Amino acid sequence: MANGNGLSSVQHVVVLMLENRSFDHMLGFLYTSSGNVSPSGQPYDGLTGTESNPDSTGQPVTVFGIQPGAQNAYYMPGADPGEGYMATNDQLFGSIDAPASSTPPAMQGFITDFAYTLGWQSNDSGWTILPGTTANDIMGCFTPEALPVLSALAEGYAVCDQWFSSLPTETMPNRAFALAATSQGHMDDKTRTFTSPSIFGLLGAHGVSWGIYGYDAEPLTKSTFTDVSGAPGGTIGQFADFTAAAAAGSLPGFCFLEPDWSSTGNSQHPAYDVALGEQLMHDVYEAVRNGPGWPQTLLVITYDEHGGCFDHVPPPSGAVPPDNSAGEFGFDFTRFGVRVPTVLISPLIAPGTVYRVPAGSMPLDHTSTLKTVQQLWGLPALTARDAAAPGFGDVLTLSVPRTDDVLAGVAIPVATAPNLAATSPSHLQEVQADLISRRFPAGQHDDANALGSENTSDAYASYISRHSDFRL
Question: Which residues contact residue 418 at a Cβ distance below 8 angstroms, ignoring those fewer than 6 apart?
Answer without folding.
Answer: none
